[in-house]
Every structure is written in C-alpha cells, then in structure tokens.
Amino acid sequence: MNRYTPSQFGSRALFAKSPLVTGDGDRGDSDHRHPGRTLESVAPVLGLYYRAVAGRNAAILADGSERDPERYPDTHTTIRLPARVVRFALGSANFDWYKVALTHRAAHYTAGTFAFAFDREAALFRRLRPASSALARSEPASELELFFSLFALRSLAVDVFCVVEALRIDEWARRRYPGLAGKYEAVQRNALNERAEYIAKRSPRDALAEVLTQASLGARSFPPLPALLHESVHRVVAICDALAREPARVEDSAEATLRLYTLIARLPNLAADYGPPRIVAPPFRDSTMADAEYPWPRAWPEPERNRLEGDEVMHTLFEPVAYRDQLGSRITQYRPAGPVDQQSIYRLTDAPARGGETQRAVQSDGATDTSPQPPPEPMEHDHHDHFAGDDAAHEAGELHSHERMSYIYPEWDHVAQRYRRSWCRVRETRLDTAPSARFFDETLRAYGSLVPGVRRQLERLAYEGLRRVHRLPHGEEIDLDAAIESRVNARAGLAPDGNVYVARQPLARDVTLALLVDVSSSTAEHAKDAPPGPMAEALAKAHGRAYRTILDVEKEALVLLMAALERIGDTYGIYCFSGTGRDDVKFQVLKDLDERLSDTVATRFDKIRSVHTTRMAPAIRHAIRKLRAHESRTRVLVLLSDGRPFDLDYGQEYGEGAELSYAQHDTRQALLEAVQHGVKPFVVTVDPHGNDYLREMCDGIGYEVLGDVSELPLRLVNLYRSLTE
Amino acid sequence: MPDVRIASEEYLVEQEPFYLPVGDEVALFEAAFAQRIPVLLKGPTGCGKTRFVEYMSWTLGRGAAPARAFPLVTISCHEDLTATDLVGRYLLSAQGTEWLDGPLTRAVRVGGICYLDEVVEARKDTIVVIHSLTDHRRLLPLEKRGEVLRAHPDFFLVVSYNPGYQSTLKDLKHSTRQRFMSIDFDYPPQILEQKIIERESRVEAPLAASLAQLGSEVRHLDQQNLLEGPSTRLLVHAGRLIAQGIVPRRACEVAVVQSMTDDALLAGGVRQVVDAIFK
Hints:
Largest interface: A-B, 43 and 37 residues
Largest sheet of chain A: 8 strands, mixed
Distance between the termini of chain A: 34 Å
Oligomer: heterodimer
Strand order of the largest sheet of chain A: 5-6-14-13-10-15-16-17
Number of helices of chain B: 11
Strand content of chain B: 15-25%
Helix content of chain B: 25-40%
Low-confidence stretches of chain A: 1-32, 334-394
Low-confidence stretches of chain B: 165-169
C-alpha cells in the first residue's frame, strides 16, 4: 500500500527539517505579504519548543476550525491547533499566538494540573473538600475524577475547573517566562476583544460563567449586569486574583472550583427579566472576598440537588477561549485509545493493581511517567527470551516468540519518544523452489548484451583502490618514522625493527550486502514497458505476459545484480518483505548470506509474489541482525522499495493520519540503528513522489529516487558500485 | 615574570577549586583512593568531570603530609596517541641515545593522580598499557628498557569518557573497563546548577536561576540525540557574558544556541526557549 498523498500533517514530521521554516519565526520575515501563520510552517520549530518547555513530546495536529464546538480535545500525546491563524496584522504576532497556545499546554504538565492530589491542602484557600477516605470509592479513579465526583452538576464543575486552572497556569507561565509576558498580554487582549458581546442577554448563570472566563483573561470591567449578579462578580474577581498569585497550586484551583461552582449553580438558569442592568461598581480590591467568612456549603459530596428549572435542559455555556485547551479525557486515567493497558485490565477484573507505584504514575499522568526518560538502548535483537524475569515491566501488547524462525523486534514510537518493547514479529521463511530457473535464465538472456558490460564495471571495482601500508618488511619506499625509531632502538641496544617500508597494496574487497526488496501489493502495478525491440520481447517471454509490473522490474534488477556480484565475489543476501500488521511481518529469503547462488536459488524467482503492506522497520532490523553476524569491513544494507512505509496498525492510537509519520519515524530509527551497528544503509525507491518523504526519513542517510522504474536494473548495479567504493 | 613552566609531574592544584558535590561522589572517590581502586568518570561534556578531578586532587593533597606534594598529571587522549607516547621513548642525542619518560611513567614514579581525559578517543591497543597498573600488580612495564616500574604508593589512575551518541562505535574494551570503579556524572540538578552558575559567572541569583531553567528545559531535547547539552560550562559562559554587560538573549544566542548546533531548525527551537525565558 503506497502512493499515499500526504495528508495535511500526518506526514509532516514534527521535527523534520523543512525549507519553509527559517527557525526564527518571530522575527517576522515576510510580514508584509503573509501576515497569517500556518500551523504547518510553525509546527517544526514550535514542536521543539514545546518539547523543551513541557519535557515531553506530542504530535501537533491541525484542527478544522477553532470555533468547532465538537473539536477534539487534546490528549497527553496529541495537540490540536488551528491550521492557520490570522488574528493579528503582523505575522510575528500570529506566530506568538501559537507559541502562547503551546506554552499554555506545556504548563499543564510543568505546573502540575494532572498532579492533583485530593488530600493535599491548598495554599491560599481553606479546605472545603472532605478527606478522600470519607468518600466511597467504588473503582480506581484518578484523583481529579474523584474530585469531580463531589458535584451534582459534574460537567459544570469540570468547565469551571478548566477556566480557573487555565488562569492559574497562565499566570504561572507568565512568571516563569518573562520573555513571553508581553505576548501573553496581546493574546489575552485579543481574546477579550472577541468576547465583548458575550455577556449581554445571557441567563444569569451563563453571564456569570462568561464573567469568570473574561476575568480569567484579565478583564476587570464588565458590561452592565442585573443587581442579582453584582456580589458574585466581586467574588469571582477576588478568587481570580488569588489564583493569579505565586503560591497557588492545582489544589487552589480545586478549592476555587468549589466556590465558583456554588456561586454559579445557585443562580437561575433561564433568561428572564432580572431587573435593570447596572455597571458593577469597582473597586475589585477586596481580597477578603475570596475566602471571607461566607457560608460556603460544607457538605461535600453535594447532596442530590433540588434542580432549578432549566438545569436539565440547559447546560451552562462556557464559550471556549481559542488559545486554551480543554482537558478532555486527560482528567481520567484512561488512555485515549490503543491497546488495552494493564490498568484497565485490573479495572475490569477488579484485581488490585500490582505495586502502588505504577498506579501513581498512571494517575499523575495517564499515559506515561511525566519525567522524560531517555529512550532505552535498542534491544539486542536476539531471539526473544520469554523467561526474562521482569514481567512487571512488560507492557500490554508485547509479543513473544515461541516458534522457530520467528523473531521479535522493538518499534520506535516517535510521539512517546521511546521504544515499544517486543512489538513486531518477523517470520522468516525461505521462498519455495520452482521446477526450473526459467525466469533467471531468460532475464539474463534478455539483458544478454548488457551483462558483460555490467560485470566488467563491477570487476574493475574489485581491483580498484590501493592503500598505503606502513611498517612493512619490504616495499616501495622507506617509512621514515619507522626507520628513525629503528635506528634509535639499535643505538640504545635494543633489537631494531626491520619493518621500515611503505607499500601500496591492493585493497582486498571485504563487502557484505543485504538487499531488502519491497514486495507489498502495490508492486503489482504496471510499470513502463521496456523499449520495443528484441529485449522487450525476451523480457515478455521471461515474465510470461505482455506487460510487466513494478515487481517484475525489481526482479530483473535482482537478476542482473546477482550475476554481477557473483563475478566479484562479495557476500550478499536477498530478502523480500511485506507484512500484515505488527505480529506478522513476512521476511522471505531468496538467497541467504551464506548460501551459494545455486540452481535452487535461481528457481525461487518464480515464487515471488506481491502481497500485503510495507512495514519496513522490522525487516530492516532483521536484516541488520543478519549482517551483524557477518564480520566484514564494509556492510551494506540496500532497501529497494516502491513507496512510503505503511502498515495498517502503525501508531493507530495517535489518530487518523498518524500512521504515516509514525511509520516514517520508525523506519528512520531502524536505519539509524543500522548506522550505529556499523552497517551502511541506502534506500532506493521507484516511487516518483519519493522525495516528499525520503528527505525527512533519510536525512543523513543515502537515498535515491528513480523517476522511471525501467532504469532500475542498470542503476542498481551502478549504485552498488558507488556504495562500496 | 615568574617562570610559568612546570614539569607535568610537578603540577599541583594549589587553590581550592570550586566544586559543589551533587551526590556521594566525593566519599566514593576517597574510599576508592584509600583502596587504590582506579576510577572511571562517565558523563556528558561540561558537566564537571575535570573540575571534580582537580577538586579531589586538591582535597587529597591537603590530607597528605605537608612534605608530600600531590601532583595531577592530565593526559588528553586522542586517536594518534601511542603506548610509546604514554610510557616514554629513546631519543637520539649527541652522546648516543637518551631515554625520555612519558607522562604516564612520570606520574607512576612520583605518585599523585594521573588523569586520562576522554580515554575512548585513544586506540584500544594503546590503553592496554595501563592494565598492569590497574590491578593488584601496580606495575608499569617499560618494554624498551627491559624494566618494570613499581608504582608510587600514592599513584592513582583516573580516566574519563563521554558515553555520548557519537562514540557508540568507540567503546572501552571490557577487559579495560572492568578494572575501574565507575562514577556516573550528569548535569547537576537545577537548584545546584543555579548555584554553580551564580558562583562561576558572578551574576545575580535570579539570572542564574533563569540560566539554570534554560539548561534544564533545553536538555529535554537531548533525547534521541537531537542535541547534546547545553553543558553547565556553556551556561556559565552565557552568565559571564551577561556579567560583562551583554544583553541576556544575545549572550545565550552566542554562548548557548550557536555553540550547541549548526542546524537551523534545532537552533530555532532552542532560540524560542531563550526568548521565552529572557526579556
């Protein structure tokens, strides 16, 4: 499955180099022509920024519209932002909007929104919450879930908490990042300007909710309101002022939520005539309003309410603030999607979770530990040892291998920035043999006139290259250093060393090649025919039909390369791969590294078929394993493909479109592992759109895009020549 | 002008170097010295390994009897370093040949700390010469002289290396590394790093705090080897430039951003953090 047009951001690597990004987006380069900013252009640099300030990684995805009430809330690993921001006249100010939005999201983690502990005291408010031991706790719930279970109108409480917590972390971020203070102000002013009309004609509850949101954005003057609301407005402002102060922590937001919820919920929820609106008189200086002796309800959890008219039908309206996020599922300890995790299994079976510590880590974070862990070393690609003792560390979804010739490999999760242990199963099989080596022979015959030339090219390579070798017993010239040393030794009464010559010696070739061939189903597509002539006829005979497919051309290239390699004596292996999901990556051996090119091997060509998808990384990892078993000075891994890496279940929990960039990162990581193990990787693709993704995937790694697949056979030989020179 | 030449085996750390212990490394080092177990220091560049060795040299020297000096011989290892360079060689002279001790031999003779910096940079066969020095034998064979040199009782070998990304291909032989007690160094925690920056660059506490914050945040990018650092040393450099009157953003640009990477995108990301922290 290839030839995907990149979805808008799915394929855009978060940290990939992009010519669109200059790296100093806030220096407003092209302000006059393009005042707006697109997420696409800012995501690479701001992705790095987010990762630095949040200490964690997330995929930054485009949102259809910021006004869409149904927009997906963020998760621990995905952030959604508008695809384009045109709020300000200056492009740099629009860039700053994105930066503030990401700072806000990062602050949820660094200022501890999800580290809420039910039993920890607030710094600024008296405690209204009961002790958690007093609450019935039927199932393991996160501390925030437990808190929200105090309220009869839970969603109202969640909304209030979101606003006050946003206020608290915004103020926290402004203190922590003085360089952003001015930008924060501009963004908040812009948000307030949009909301000028939001208060009028709303029901008292909605009006107070909006007053709260505006106060959280720094507003201290409000349009005229009915007298009914005035005292509450003073209290709202006083509570907001308290939360803006330095010692405020998430538990303060919780206490503030209890109070503000009370203020809002006791108001009528219907729009009616509540008397003439008047301006709420300043000053709002009375800090005692925040927590003065006021009859705040002390009975929590809240008893079943006598529902006021309208409670059921009318949800209190909190208009979202565009630059702030919603907490969404993050207040729970559920994972957003993906495989069932250990915790939910415990929840289902009602068994106590193993070890209190895992429980805590999950509660404070939901997905992974907050502290960034360096990725584990790539695991030894050994046959998976299922007797390993650390069962507790095993993640749900890990695979085990109990069969012969099946191997387990990790996978790189670029969003979480870590390896998933034991994530892919590679099944190695040998291609069946056919009765005759018809294809091999006929292809050689078809390329007949070209073959000797191709061979000669490689042969020349075999004898090219001379190396100066020092300290030899005889040679062309004297090795000065060695000669002096030898003289010195002789004078000092030591045995002189006679190895004092330099010589040029031919370089012995010591190359091992593993060639991985993509045989995914897309290789069944038709390829351009060979130019008409006797060669085309001969090829048609070899393929047994009038047209040829991409796979056919790949096979032709293999035959030609094998014929040439046999002549120069390099060790080589040829493997076909495809896959259907992570537990079944097929790795078919056409010729193994230590196999001879026998007639049996040659017959296997007839059994290569196009099947399934392109899961490259496990195949690469398996090929590395094979190469590592061979001591060679030069070890080369060539990956021959017709499209981008893709598989159905790649990174599926990161949302639609995520699998493309996920697959790319995993493949890139596998290629980097090759480098680490002293293997030289090279990618050849016949996908004419290959440049789109290979530029990122193979940054720092050699690759070549062939516009015309029919060039492949000759080109591959040439490439091999230049790779091993 | 006083003579500034010092023989390598006579170099003493005379003033107490500023070193802020992060964990139990001082006690470990002292215990290792008491038992003459060689020490391997691992850690990223600029996190204080060399400073620690100087500090320990000073500490141990202070504990030694006044008559006994406690020198520090530092050898920076590189690819072309040969065993001869370490041990010594014969030189031609007018009279014939003359033996010249290498720095390792000098340290073995007089005692004190011999510090092989970035030991993985040297070829593996070079490092093998220290093997007999690092076990119970404490001997250095001088093959060319047909001699064996018994190490001074105070001779103490310390090596350091940076197990970073670029050296995954270079690694110590197991037969070498399993002769050492290893102390793992990392950048100090933010609060200590702030104190170090404050002390080393003489900037005000809030500014040192901001620099330490910059350090700890940008280090989040070093996973997956996007970047290494910034080291404490770079942050101190930025602090010194600021103390000289350079505006903080500019100082961080030249001392941190540009020193960490040449990649425009990565530099852009780091710069965004700088701009957020400093006005």
